[in-house]
Write a structure and sequence with these properties.
This protein is α+β, with helices and mostly antiparallel strands. 22% of the residues lie in helices and 27% in strands. It has nine helices and 17 strands. The strands form three sheets. Strands 7, 8, 9, 10, 11, 12, 15, 16 and 17 form a nine-stranded mixed beta sheet that branches. Strands 1-2-3-6-5-4 form a six-stranded mixed beta sheet, with helices on both faces. Helix 7 runs antiparallel to helix 8. The N and C termini lie far apart (48 Å).
Length: 361
Amino acid sequence: MAYQKIDDNQPATLSSGEAYFTQLVADRCRSVQPQVSARSFGFGDLTLQVIFIGESNQDFFTKAISHRKSPAQPNSLTVYVVNHKTSGIMLPQPCWNWQQTDGHGVIHGLAAGYSGTFQQDTGVFTWIAHTERLALVWGTDFASLPEWERSFPFRYVLHKWFEDQERYVLVHAGAVGTPSGGVLLTGRGGSGKSTSTLACLQSRLHYAGDDFVMIDLDDPFVHSLYNVAKLEPENLGRFPVLQSLADDQPIVPGQKLQFYLHQHYPNIVTKGFPLKAIMLPQFTGSQQTTVRPATPAEALKALAPSTLALLRADQRTFQKMTRLVHQLPLFWLETGTDLAQIPDAIYSTLQSLPTYAEAPC
């Protein structure tokens, strides 16, 4: 049954409320004149064509992904970023009942191919329509977004876009390596993941991220998502190279410092590399850094809980992470106080593993 029109300007043949809602979103965004030029960013085989509507700080959404800038592609996913306060554009009438929303803001019970979430704390609504290749990030006032949001823009859009695909998965992990191969660094909070990643900044290893990265499971490959490094303020003294590079935003109590590395070290930040191993950092308190084998169960325990919680992911993502930890060599990276030993231990481990063709980027 065709869905009833809820706007006289809409076509009458759309088959679901979600399709109508998406059409209304598209029409309202396209009606804004003049149209703003799109900015494109590539992630694997997906290109985001981002269009801002309403005066907003575009840098807030793009600085972290500036190293992924790419030419526009015909089959891109168009992402409208709409600031309600400055554009006046309201959301269309929803086709769902807000009681379908869980405590994390995820809207359940939508038709296949549609995803939505509303974050009450930030006032941001995100919608992804696969068939229409359209996404919406709508906010009541982007000027009020917390500072930490700028460090991983569009993560929910990317996660939901790839969630049904077997090939790609977003994971909460860091990644460093060379063009011929690198490692994923993952662990629970406080395990030393960020410290291990940042310890490699002035080494032979390139930086692909220390928070979220995207993995191609078919041909294991790390795709960098964000060029932002994060560090607890009290640990800044351990990284002299970063002391003058902290982003010029106010320090929020309880939040990490942010460093936009592509801005300062474009040659260190990489778009990605073949994935050769997974390492689980564990601070030992000794001076030395050592490496020993880990099991798939240990790797999954380090990788899955934070990934699932932060992305509000379900069993599909868990199954992909299970597949990942059974594809690669796994190691504990037992880190010590001498930070210089960390990149050496990682590089030596990489040298002991098979070499693949170098990454094209």
